[in-house]
Amino acid sequence: MKKWEGVRAAMLGALTIIALAAAMIVPGVGASPAQAANVTDGFSPGNIVSDANFYDGRALDAGQIQTFLNQRVPRCTIGDPGRTAGMKWGETRIASQCLRNFSMNTQSRPANAYCAAYSGRSGESAAEIIAKVGQACGISQRVLLIMLEKEQSLVTDSWPTVRQFDVAMGYACPDSGPGNSANCDPTQTGFFQQVYRAAWQLKVYRANPNSYNYKPFQNNRIQWHPNAGCGTSNVYIENWATAALYIYTPYRPNQAALNAGWGTGDGCSSYGNRNFHNFYKTWFGDPQLPFPVDGRIATYWQSNRSWLGNPKAAAVTNNANGGGRTQQFSGGIVFEPKSGQVSGMQRTSPIYIAYSQAGGIAGPWGWPAAPAVNQGVSGNNVMRFQGGIVAEAKGYGAYLVPTRLQALWEKEGGFGGRIGFPIASAFTGPGDIVSQSYRSGELVYSPAGGSLQVDPDFLTAWRALGAGGGSIGVPIGPSVSSTANGGGKTYPMLRGTMYQSRAGVYAIGTGPFGDAYRAAGGHTGSLGWPIAPAECGLHDGGCAMPFQNGVGLWNQATGMVKVSPQTYEAWKRHDAKLGYPEVTASAVGTGANGGFVHRFATGEAYQSTAGTYVLFDGPLRDAYRSAGGPLGGWGWPTSDLTCATDGSKCVMSFAEGTATTTPNGGLEFVRALGDFPKQRLSGSDRFSTAVEAVRNAYPSPVDTVIIANGMDYPDALSAGALGAKWKAPLLLTTSSNLPEATRIELARLQPKRIVVAGGPGVVNANVMAQLGELAPRVDRVSGADRYETSRAIAQAGWPNGTSSQVFIATGAEFADALAAGAAAGATGAPVVLVPGAASAAPVALTAELDRLGAKQVRIAGGVGAVSSGVERSLAQGRVVERFAGADRYETSSLIAEALFPQNGSNPYWANGSDFADALAGNAVAGAQRSPLLLSRASCVPPSVYDSTARLARDRILILGGTGVLSDAVYMAKRCGI
């Protein structure tokens, strides 16, 4: 057997005999199969085994191999008396396992030029090793099993030795020892190493045929026996596998060895290759695969045998597409059509793979008509078939150029021509159209236009329409240039036209929409060239397409009408309800106050610098027209109509205000507040902002000033109503020190009395002392908590029986109490705080209501702020009215609109998310009989906007700087717009 040491010797041209003598000259190595009559019949010295059988790396899997090993050794006798594992046996020891039970840790091997990567792991069985090595190196597992038996009898030995595993394949064991004995390299021992390296070596032989003494497809001189005196014989080696066997075991069995079957011949008999044949035939069947090859297939095979290999089956007749024969070989398939040349294809070739996917002989390609012709670069080939010519381009695949396109393709230069090779299968569509993509373009065919190349200027857009141009089909003639409307090109299609201009390439199909466009002059008319794709399937079967000069909006009833892009976008928001345009848009007004009005089936679209909005037919549109339309008091629309989900009202904004409708036919137009006079009252902090609010309302000295903690809100909420009643401004302090801005303002106001809201934990003695320096009298109004403090404030301002109405708000939040405080101050009522989450009003609260003589209770906020349980307990003998909006902003609006007259006061706006700037404003607003409304920081809530528009008289006062209420609020930006 040739080993790795023999490779080097063979490279030098010397025949190195490295066969294991016992395997070559001993007739039955180990336990041989039972003698079978004529077992050597059919042995061919030039074709011991076919390449197909020898190099089939997937012949057996691990499970099949394990079953085979179990059958060869039904019972392993290691452990029987005299066969104990590890006991001395000659120069070695009894192994611990038979091959059927053997396992070991294997090492991963990277891929190399001869074998794919091998992934090692611990505890791999012999069956797994044989299966994986065969698959990695492309050597049949049957061959590996036979060599294990031929070399060391491992397959059938029921008590093998350690050495049998160490040199399992006889690899690296040249016969260079004494008396031609095996001289094994100790670095190459071990079962896995032997199996892997032997399989690798067999592949090395095939890859380097000129490096060894025995070569396939030629005559070779082969010795009969290691004894050169026995002579040689001349053998024509017919395949790679037989050459490998002779390189591995370089002797030919003589007739005496063959006559002996499994037995002994004469003194010049060798047995290694005979036994390989015998084992293969006994265990696995005929090693030569004797399938006949005849006729024109035989002639082709003989010329291409180097890659076709041996036949794998007999020739088969196929009657499809005119009929012929095919025959399978180990390296490919040969086709013999009744008419046409014989040709073959490798199964792994791109052309054959694509051919198979296309249906093979019975598919549109039909029979091969001639062998493949290389195009000058490996992997670039063309091959003629009945259905056309196939082009294979390296890296792109193989595709059929159908007969409809073949003549034009070849006229353009074919594979290396102007359009290049195909890069996709041809598409066949309805009406016998064909299209196919090539490296540098597209070829198409239709009965109407014949075979054409798609104009490159249109190609990308045409392909984007879908296979074969989608609904517009393929070109049926050349493109035509036009100078109209800036210039471009038109391109006739099977079912329409494509248009190219500076705006791009777009398609318009045949049918009513295309007819209407052409009737309007097409690209030369008022619409001009298309600038975007058409949209069809719109409401009522309509279509729309943007053009240079507008959007063509069409349906069957109205035809094509040009609308502006802005009007089209507005129409899309309402298409099903608005219907289609009846006339072309009319211009209304001029300059900054100009725009267009476009009439539709059920309404009108108004386009101005403010945008384009829709007004449907009905009372609102009638009222708008009565007010003078776009040039009247309402101005141009600035929003679409929006309606509440419950249908309670609908709102639409106009340049000069907002129109609101109700289901009962009510309509109100509320003026816009953007340009309405406003005054911002703000300082550098909350304390100075409070000063600005007070200074604006109280320009002269006052008798009384109220002081509250500006870092928290509870005490100031009730104090605001008291300040409004006393006409006493409210200023802010910290709990421990009087801010300088507050001190300066107190000095300006010169009060005779200062009232502090809250106990020492809220405003401490230090502040009281500082206040004592600014007024002759300083009093404190307080209780044990915010609720008792609010009652104490009510008692300080309202003697027994002097307030028939009281405002109630939660003490856990500030928003509702702020709005309530201004309203309470304006109506002369106190604000009393309640623990809103309580199940009932505290007894102290109901007692305070009784003391005040309250007959009416107004609750600020919903049940989430003041519970229904509290409401029920307050209703005992009293009228209870709750003001509850969807949020704090709407609650403030409800209070304002209920208690303040329209256009009768100047509302205050305060941040609804922060109490600081609103505390002083609460008292000021109440004293001025003005509402306090809450706003978001970045926009005015719709409810607040509308209430302000109805209530405001001269101006709006904004509490806080731009960090509290932004410039957008100052400009009355409505939330949601």
TrEMBL record:
Alphabetical UniProt keywords: Signal
Query: Domain of life of the organism in this record?
Result: Bacteria
**Name of one Pfam family that matches:** LGFP
InterPro entries cross-referenced by the UniProt entry: Bact_Sporulation_Assoc, Cell_wall-bd_2, LGFP
Residues annotated as signal peptide: 1-36
Q: Does the keyword Membrane apply?
A: no
The name under which this protein is listed is: LGFP repeat-containing protein
